[in-house]
Amino acid sequence: MPRRKPKKKGPAKGAERDHASEGDTEETASITSSHMSEPDSIEEATLNGQDTTVDETDAQELLEEKMRDNLDGTTQKSVQGRRTCLENLRTAFTRKYLLDFVSDRKMTISDCVERCLKKGKGEEQSLAANLGVLLLIQLGAGDESEEAFKTLQPLLKVTLLDKTAAVKARASCAFALGVGCFLAAEEFEVVVDTMTTLEQIFSESYHKGDGTSPSHTANVTMLHCAALSSWTLLLSITPPSRVIQMVESHLPRLPDLLESEDVNLRIVAGEAIAMFYELAREDDEEFEGDDMDNLVLKLRDLATDSNKYRAKKDRRHQRSSFRDIIRTIEENDAPYEIIKFGTEELELDSWVRRRQYGVLREVLGSGTNIHLTENPLLRDVFGLGAPILIGPGGVKKISRFERHQCNSAAFKARTKVRSKQRDKRVAVY
User: Fold this and answer.
1) Are 387 and 342 in contact (CB under 8 A)?
2) Above 50 in pLDDT, residue 128?
């Protein structure tokens, strides 16, 4: 056992405590300063008049360095390693708007998605499809996103229709194909072709020849739900002249899906029916369909469903959704919801806007508000205007009435412009 070392004479105990206190204070101050440089505290520091330019630059450079490493990592031999890198890139693209970084490396990212879709399996293909959608959202409207979608569209379609591929990968490709077409399709012919492809998938849940509902596994039903969700998204941008044709060909079949065992498929089918009525009544306010009475009875049963074999959460979600759907069909009353983000608000006052917001929120998750604030593409989709720059003094919050007037005017103007554009695209045929 070693001998105890003799005590050395040092400062008094009080002085030691003072010295330790000073050391603790310095260490604590260092930790606090580090915390204040994190992204969550930058805005607060800016409002307090502190200069955070250096901190923001350092954080951005660190993020971009990690993203470059992850892009390189998608070529490694390890399957799990590639999945991790794809997931890291997906997370970064959802949480931040990174136009400069993505635009400079759009070919590299597109090649990464293409390679993983071709050579990957299951989860890797699913992650690659999701990353492909985020690439289009980051690039925004324009030639770059259109070229990227032209490259990815055939691969997404092939994987979707490949019955030997994993069901989860096919579902992600169905979702990516619809959202990508919504954001970046150059011609309406591409939209029509994509809707036909998606219908091939979810039509397998229509009634069989004897009038009974087919039985599918939960994974296959998830695939049908993703295909129908994407199909309904593209229905929201269909020209009025084509909507009338689709009402006759599709509206009589969609009620079959209301009898599915899957609550999500029932709800998406109900929302598709409600959107058909909403769009058809833009041309004919008295539109009722061929068999509205039986349809309302089905919808009312679902809106009051109390079957104990369904999960309580599913019953509550279903009843809430179908009450809104019935109000649209019986009273022509559209759902209304306000989404608040920062100092702004987004009004969802139709099934069209509700579907578009719901799909984009599913892609972006917790980063939806960031992209609504900063991403010009999403702001254009919802008529929010140019991004608002927030300086050290903040922004002046306008009244709800002024905001409502601006949103209404922007929505009407956008609707007129898009209607003209769609009619021109349809006239080509």
Assistant:
1) no
2) yes
